[in-house]
Design brief:
Elements lengths: L16 E3 L2 E7 L1 H4 L4 E5 L16
Antiparallel strand pairs: 1-2, 2-3
């Protein structure tokens, strides 16, 4: 697999998803990168989930 640059302008991604009061914008999907996803998460201070881990992440 050869690395390829992935450049998106603001009009090239889907609208943000509202996930329990946090706006989550997918900047690069697993399909686009062939490996991982990149998201931008925006919300009010204190609305994020408590510290936790996903077993599939480790």
């Amino acid at each position: 697999m050869n690395a390829q640059p992935l450049i998106l302008s603001p009009d090239q991604h889907e609208p943000a998803l509202n996930v329990v009061g946090i706006q989550v914008t997918v900047l690069a999907s697993n399909a686009a990168t062939q490996s991982y996803g990149i998201t931008l998460q925006q919300g009010e201070e204190g609305t994020d989930p408590p510290p936790h881990r996903q077993d599939w992440n480790h």
